[in-house]
Design goal:
The protein has 339 residues and is an alpha+beta fold. It is built from five helices and 21 strands. The two termini are 34 Å apart.
Length: 339
């Protein structure tokens, strides 16, 4: 179905007032075959809207793949799940627990659809989507065919994948395949989980949900997209310099020798909780979250995010990069070009 001048405010959890020229809401992968992508003009693939902010009216076509379905196969040492792209991620985690398939608890309450999980390799509390991914089913706009990419072919990294690089804008994710080991081993290395003693999967799930709810505002109450900035990864030399000055600075060593820092902590050290520009503000409890508190505009948000970045850069010599996707009139944009 095509709608003219469709409002996008309810399709993004940041809820800025904006419109698209056209909207295509798809319910089956076969519908992709009917779209003439080479002649469609500008288009944007939109999932659950929890990692996308429309800064202004979009001149092209919004395509919403709302494919549903979960298939489970039990093997001797694992469960294999085939999950359609339109399934809600948190509901998938709940589905697994309800069916005695533990393993995804640390990823509870991450907003968005399952089709978006591989794109930025969603992760939380020491676990990433890549840890479970077996394959991604992908519809190629050029060949008009569906193909299956293995985990290795997805080139997963920290909040990164081939879908943000080489394949960006060249296709759409139709489904994902995950493998969950039957031998459950809880990941309890992060603060808040370390205190758990021999927990059940449900206890880990409940704890993660409680932590996230205590830190992150409900988008239904205060429009937001969760973590606005990526946690920066710095080389060891820069980390040593910073840690000598800021002894309490959270840090997470990476396998490649670099160190991941907490963007929220860096912003908080700049005293920016509650900082407001126009109708947008840094959340009062979690500095990593930018919010739309009073009918903000795209310009308000760009100004706020730019200000936050500059303050962190001035204090720590670290340039934060948005985790969220910012969409302008003709497509994806950046804070620099959106000014």
């Amino acid at each position: 179905m095509v709608s003219q001048k469709h409002s996008l405010q309810s399709l993004s959890t940041f809820a800025l007032p904006s419109y698209a020229a056209n909207l295509l809401h798809l319910f089956a992968p076969e519908q992709l075959q009917a779209i003439d992508f080479p002649n469609l003009g500008p288009f944007y693939i939109l999932g659950g809207g929890s990692n996308t902010i429309f800064l202004e009216d979009y001149a092209g076509t919004i395509i919403q793949p709302d494919f549903k379905g979960i298939e489970v196969q039990e093997h001797s040492d694992n469960w294999a799940l085939h999950i359609c792209a339109g399934e809600n991620w948190h509901q998938l985690v709940c589905f697994c627990l309800e069916n005695n398939i533990p393993g995804l608890e640390n990823l509870a309450l991450i907003p968005g659809n399952c089709g978006a999980a591989p794109i930025q390799n969603i992760g939380a509390y020491g676990i990433e989507f890549a840890n479970f991914c077996e394959y991604v089913d992908w519809y190629n706009f050029e060949t008009c065919e569906q193909q299956r990419l293995t985990r290795d072919e997805c080139n997963f990294g920290y909040r990164d994948s081939i879908f943000k690089g080489k394949l960006k804008g060249k296709g759409v994710i139709v489904a994902v395949g995950v493998s969950i080991p039957k031998l459950w081993q809880p990941k309890l290395s992060y603060p808040g989980l370390q205190e758990l003693q021999l927990p059940t999967p449900k206890q880990v799930f409940d704890t993660v949900v409680a932590i996230r709810q205590s830190k992150l505002p409900d988008p239904e109450q205060i429009p937001n997209v969760g973590s606005f900035f990526k946690n920066p990864v710095v080389d060891n030399e820069q980390y040593q310099q910073l840690s000598s000055e800021y002894e309490s600075m959270p840090a997470f060593p990476q396998a490649n020798g670099k160190v991941k820092l907490a963007a929220g902590w860096l912003i908080d050290q700049c005293g920016l909780k509650g900082k407001q520009i126009g109708g947008t503000a840094v959340h009062k409890k979690q500095a990593l979250v930018l919010t739309n508190i009073a009918n903000g505009s795209g310009k308000d948000l760009v100004a706020l995010a730019t200000y936050v970045r500059q303050q962190v850069k001035d204090k720590f010599a670290i340039l934060l990069e948005p985790e969220v996707r910012l969409i302008g009139a003709s497509g994806e944009t950046t804070l620099e070009t959106a000014k």
